[in-house]
Specification:
Length: 100
């Protein structure tokens, strides 16, 4: 099972504005409390979605890492998926987030 301790939130939506109007953010319970955007996001806590989207992103060969997030863009389908980590991930292996 995926360990989500290092993850704050994920985004799944269209490419473009990422304020939430073109897609959806899902938060971990800790991420919603410790890294909220300044307003209540408890309705957006969905750790199941966080796990599913994170696995899709990290298993995609086109994943890109930048600062504290990883993302995949599919321009043909106008789709963006992003996972936001608590800290920047310099060298990342999907195995770092999997419980043994």
């Amino acid at each position: 099972m995926l360990n989500i301790d290092k993850i704050v939130k994920v985004y799944n939506g269209k490419i473009g504005c990422m304020c939430g109007c073109n897609g959806k953010y899902s938060y971990t319970a800790k991420g919603a409390v410790e890294n909220s955007p300044g307003y209540d996001v408890t309705d957006s806590i969905n750790e199941r979605s966080v796990r599913i989207i994170t696995k899709k992103i990290l298993s995609n060969p086109l994943v890109k890492f930048e600062d504290n997030y990883a993302y995949v863009e599919d321009r043909a389908r106008n789709k963006m998926q992003m996972v936001v980590f608590k800290e920047p991930q310099e060298v990342f292996s999907p195995f770092d987030t999997v419980n043994s």
